[in-house]
Each structure stands twice: as C-alpha cells, then as structure tokens.
Amino acid sequence: MNQYMPFITDFLSEVGTPLSALIITIITGYIIRKIVFIRLSRWSRSTKTEIDDIIIGALKGPIIIWFLMLGIFFALKTSKLTDGVVFIINKLLLILGILSITVVLANISSRLIKVFSQRVDSALPVTSLTQNISRIIILLFIYIIFSEYVRNIIYNNIRIM
C-alpha cells in the first residue's frame, strides 16, 4: 500500500484541486441561482409589465451553463496544464460565453416582439417566422461583430500548437 501513496497523492494534487474547484463553482452557481431567482420572481410578480418575466425566464437556464464555464475556468487556473492549452481553452470558453449571451438576447427579443405585438390592435399577427427573423438578425449582428475576433483567436492559436 505504501508503494502506491506517492502516486495517489500526485493524482489527487493534479486532478483533485481542479475537480474540486469545478464542483464548488457549480454548486455555488446552483445556490446563487436559487436565491437570486426566488427573489427576482417575487419582485417580478409585483410589476405590471411582462418584460421582467421574459428576461428572468430567458436567464434562468443559461446561468447554470455560465457557472459551468466559470468552473472550467477556475479548474484550468488550478490545473497543471501547459499555458498554451489553458490559453486555447480560455478563448474557447470566451467564444462559448459570447454565443450563449447572443442566444439569450435573441430569445429575449423574440419574446418581446411577441408580447408587444399582441398589445397593438392594428398589427398583423406575429408568427414564429417573425420571431425567428428577429433571432436571425441578432445572431447575424453578433456574428459580424465577433467574427474577426474569433477568426484571429483561432488562427493565432493554431500556430502556437
């Protein structure tokens, strides 16, 4: 048994710390999500508009994904991976974060269009096509803004490897 102790302690120090950072961040995210969204839901019931309900509903799911990404970031900071690998994974996390925020904004805009079009009597009925067009416009707008940035990240990091 003593012959395996150095291997076990090395394994725990290399994998245990990053893994515990990931798990602690995800658990903290669940707790924060629970507390914050309970309070936000109470507050949104007292308002007259549906805007806050739409925003809260759109943020409820992705917040766990964001805490998972934050946990991966902290795990990378405590890991013993090479700087090049950590740099690339951090840039991928940034790209995924931007993409997830874009999807959230597209969903919020689509729901807002639906809600506000129902209030206007003379407006044509909003179809899923109208909502999808608004999502596509936002996705294209974000794509145009970040395409050069993402392309530079990928191109520069392929040369590092």
Write the layout of secondary structure elements.
Layout: H1 5-45, H2 51-60, H3 62-78, H4 83-119, H5 128-160
Helix pairs in contact: 1-2, 1-3, 2-4, 3-4, 4-5
Rounded to the nearest angstrom, the distance between the terminal CA atoms is: 40 Å
Mean pLDDT score: 80
- Biggest sheet record: none
Number of helices: 5
Compute the CA-based radius of gyration: 22 Å
Helical/strand content category: mainly alpha
The SSE string, one letter per element, is HHHHH
Low-confidence runs of at least 5 consecutive residues? none
Shape: flat
What is the number of E strands?
A: 0
Q: Structurally, how many domains make up the residues?
A: 2
Q: Indicate the proportion of strand residues.
A: under 5%
Helix content: over 70%
Short description:
The chain is mostly helical and 161 residues long.
Describe it for me?
This protein folds into two domains: 80 residues, no CATH class; 80 residues. The chain is mainly α. The protein contains five helices and no strands. It is flat, with a radius of gyration of 22 Å. The relative contact order is 0.09.
Highlighted features:
single chain, 161 residues, mainly alpha, 2 domains, 5 helices, flat
